[in-house]
Design goal:
This protein is an alpha+beta fold. 27% of the residues lie in helices and 8% in strands. It has helices at 4-7, 14-24, 92-107, 121-135, 138-141, 176-182; strands at 112-116, 169-174, 188-189, 198-201. It has a 4-stranded antiparallel beta sheet.
């Protein structure tokens, strides 16, 4: 008769096999134990995990998850193109200086307002042609009106200078005497003798290219 140890599958304890065989033969050992967990925390085939059988959720069942997605909420794509033009059309720093000057003039009993601000290249060309017709000569007109792309009224004038978009010059009305007197204190100048109403951002002549 072969030795029991010789016919056992590798890893099976002989004592355990004998106990199981005794129980199967009705020797009072009771029924064979049902399936249960084996070493290492794994389950034998057909065994139920603790807490009852588990079911997998149906794919697509239930409402979509609520709340913003990971990463802080919905993402928006950045706008394409160059820098955005200010709503007023004036360079923000230039507009801020003008407002400060206007407030100072009002404290002295006067007032200022802009009557001609940003002009695009087409509008500037039209103004130049009208001025040439008025004075009968383009050379005379260019003493009073800059050609397109050379005027501080142009909303793009300050971009290549590193000053950002928006007009850096405007024509004003009101108390020009106070404006000329107080303007330099607020970083504003009046560079044209032919147009004493034309006001510009001070210092741009030093950064012109």
């Amino acid at each position: 008769m072969p030795n029991l140890q010789d016919i056992l599958p590798p890893g099976l304890d002989p004592a355990m096999l004998q106990q199981l065989m005794a129980g199967a033969g009705g020797g009072g050992g009771g029924p064979m134990p049902g399936p249960g967990p084996i070493s290492g925390g794994q389950m034998t085939p057909g065994a139920s995990p603790p807490g009852g059988p588990q079911t997998m959720p149906e794919t697509g069942a239930g409402p979509p998850p609520q709340g913003p997605p990971e990463g802080g909420g919905p993402q928006t794509m950045p706008q394409q193109g160059g820098p955005q033009q200010p709503e007023s059309g004036l360079n923000p720093a230039f507009e801020e200086r003008f407002v400060a000057l206007r407030n100072a003039v009002r404290e002295q009993g006067g007032d200022l307002y802009i009557y001609s601000g940003p002009r695009n290249k087409e509008e500037q060309q039209q103004l130049l042609q009208e001025t040439a017709g008025k004075y009968g000569d383009m050379k005379e007109a260019m003493k009073r009106v800059k050609p397109p792309g050379k005027s501080t009224h142009d909303p793009e004038y300050g971009v290549p200078l590193g000053l950002g978009p928006g007009a850096l010059g405007a024509d004003i009305r009101g108390d020009l005497h106070l404006a000329h007197k107080m303007g330099p204190h607020f970083g504003l100048v009046f560079p044209s003798q032919q147009q004493p109403w034309h006001m510009e951002f001070a210092g741009i002549d030093k950064v012109k290219t």
